[in-house]
Amino acid sequence: MFTHSVPDSRSSATDRTDERESSTAVRLEGVTHRYGATGGRFRSSADRTVTALRDVSLEVSTGTIVGLEGPSGSGKSTVLHAVSGLLVPSDGSVELLGTDLAGLSDAERTRLRRRHIGIVFQRFHLLPSLSARANVALPLVQSGLPRRDRRKRATALLEAVGLGDRTTHLPGELSGGERQRVAIARALSTDPDVIVADEPTGELDTATGADVLELLTDVGRDRAVLVASHDQATLEVADRVVTLCDGRVDDVR
Ligand code: ADP
Ligand code: MG
Predict the structure, then answer these.
(1) Domain of 177, in residue numbers
(2) Per-residue confidence of the chain (253 residues) as pLDDT tens digits?
(3) Ligand having the closest approach to the CA of 34
(4) Which of 68, 109, 153, 191 is most buried, taking the most CB atoms under 10 A from its CB?
(5) Are the beta carbons of 181 and 2 closer than 8 angstroms?
(6) What DSSP string runs through 70-127?
(7) Is 14 a domain residue?
(8) What is the CATH number of the domain that holds 91?
(9) To test the ligand 1 pocket, which listed residue (54, 78, 249) has its Cβ within 8 A of the most ligand atoms?
């Protein structure tokens, strides 16, 4: 369905000049995470601590899609949050493009995330009052790119995901599948090296989900993609599937 591939704006969207290499983009080693383990109201009551991840190790190389499966509560989203630097695990290390996230300040981690990671959520997380194009252009505000170029790039990305005729529509005027394609276009706006997708087809019917998966596969050709899902069709586009069970890696296939 998507005849043209997603535009590469390496030179315009970021100041990165080096070519993307086929190497390990994401590396988790011995990651354990306990929610509620430090500070907060429950500090003294150890039974409020939830161990969400136990000694998880995995790698995602550029040009590879890794699926993350497992029942609800098995730790999939926690892995994605750790990769995105949205949380710092209690133990173990998370490396993004060779940088150990634990060694960074909050601000540095945020900067690294904005520049190198595109995030796709189950429920799209589009801003309802902004047009499709404005949603896609939003992450570029911090890039220093002039407004006109931001709009141009957003339009090109929407065209690439098959929504060239929906640029001025509001999210509420789009179908679920269209919204997710807008969200993927937004995730791609900064031309990230890594795409993290949390149940990206969870809200979509089978046919619409297939479109989104085709797009994700296309996107994964020169990026590292980590996709959490319990949908078999979604896991089928992955080169490798890591199964989590109760916070542990149970299987890799
Ligand atoms: P999944 O995405 O596979 O459904 P999660 O990573 O969301 O799993 O959750 C793993 C475990 O961590 C679950 O037991 C969940 O209840 C717990 N958990 C997730 N987020 C939090 C949080 N912010 N605070 C406390 N516990 C959490
Ligand atoms: Mg989840």
Answers:
(1) 21-43+50-252
(2) 444 455 655 444 344 434 555 589 999 999 999 998 655 555 555 567 999 999 999 999 999 999 999 999 999 999 999 999 999 999 999 999 999 999 999 999 999 999 999 999 888 899 999 999 999 999 999 888 999 999 999 999 999 889 999 999 999 999 999 999 999 999 999 999 999 999 988 888 888 888 888 888 988 889 999 999 988 989 999 999 999 999 999 989 9
(3) 1
(4) 68
(5) no
(6) -STTSSHHHHHHHHTTSS--SEEEEEETTEEGGGS-HHHHHHHHHHHEEEE-TT----
(7) no
(8) 3.40.50.300
(9) 78
What's the pTM?
0.87
Nearest CA to ligand 1 atom 25: 35
Number of domains in the chain: 1
The token duo for 251 is 């299987």
Contact 126, 163 (CB under 8 A): no
